[in-house]
Amino acid sequence: MTDLELKKTAVEIRKGIITAVHAAKSGHPGGSLSAAEIFTFLYFEEMKNLDPKDPKKADRDRFVLSKGHTAPGLYATLAQKGYFPKEDLKTLRHIGSYLQGHPDMKHIPGVDMSSGSLGQGISAAVGMALSAKIFHDSFRVYTLLGDGELDEGQVWEASMFAGAKKLDNLCVIVDNNNLQIDGAVTDVNDPYPIDKKFEAFNFHVINVEDGNDFDQLRAAFAEARGTKGMPTAIIARTVKGKGVSYMENSVGWHGKAPNDEEYETAMEELRKAGEELG
């Protein structure tokens, strides 16, 4: 895809996020929106052998949403990719819907691992990467963490193991939007310097100054794919709530749904953003 096509796709994914969370009257828009470019690049450019008609294809690259509460972002991406109808996004968190509040690998096409309990996703991803090494499989494993999620000790246990086992088929991405549920990450439990911590666990680290920029993401993922002998951590600085003006850099939109008026405002902004791209 060209950068223009990727940008247009990210706008559509943001529309899906807002649509789903508004319909559910609950959910997590802030961290879903901050990662829209990351989701877009992974599913429409980076990950190989994806086939919505064959979601369990053996040689597909795997993705684990470790920060599982941002399921609206993943669901909107999967719908955009064609794994299920976009219309189903409106059933998010409804009784009887397969689109639960956190990813469910048993019922949602395209979800490679159930997640939601913070820290467990990266652990599962490390296990997948180790399995690929043991059985000489060629697929790569990607996992997306929140910067607040780094508070979990399990993240570092998994990272230590990944570094020790030289899992160069593993790519950890940290959505570094600087906000978590209770406030700024520096105020809650300061994780910095994130890059030095991953380096200490024998990761190749790539700092991305603007994780909402496709050129920078493309360069980072190319470097990660070319890194041998150690896992890679991409630390991507993003804007929480990116793309919806009143949500940007606002901790209050970590886990709150827009009302009808806020929904209309957000969708109008995203419609204009799409039109500006041509």
How does this model look, in words?
The protein has 278 residues and is an alpha/beta fold. The chain has a single domain (3-276), classed as Thiamin diphosphate (ThDP)-binding fold, Pyr/PP domains (Rossmann fold, 3-Layer(aba) Sandwich), CATH 3.40.50. It is built from 10 helices and 7 strands. The protein has a 5-stranded parallel beta sheet with strand order 1-2-3-7-6, sandwiched between helices. Helix 1 packs across helix 3. The longest helix is centred in the first third of the chain and has 22 residues, at 3-24. The chain is globular, with a radius of gyration of 17 Å. The model has no long low-confidence stretch (mean pLDDT 98). This is Transketolase. Pfam families: Transketolase_N. GO terms for molecular function: metal ion binding; transferase activity.
Brief sketch in words of this structure:
The longest helix is centred in the N-terminal third of the chain and has 22 residues, at 3-24.
Strand order of the largest sheet: 1-2-3-7-6
Low-confidence stretches: none
Class derived from helix and strand content: alpha/beta
End-to-end Cα distance: 15 Å
Question: What is the CATH topology assignment?
Answer: Rossmann fold
Domain module count: 1
User: Which radius of gyration do the C-alpha atoms yield?
Assistant: 17 Å
Mean pLDDT: 98
CATH architecture: 3-Layer(aba) Sandwich
SSE topology string: HHHEHHEHEEEHHEHEH
* Beta-strand percentage range: 5-15%
What is the tally of beta strands?
A: 7
InterPro entries: THDP-binding, Transketolase_CS, Transketolase_N
Domain Transketolase N-terminal: 10-267
Pfam families: Transketolase_N
Protein name: Transketolase
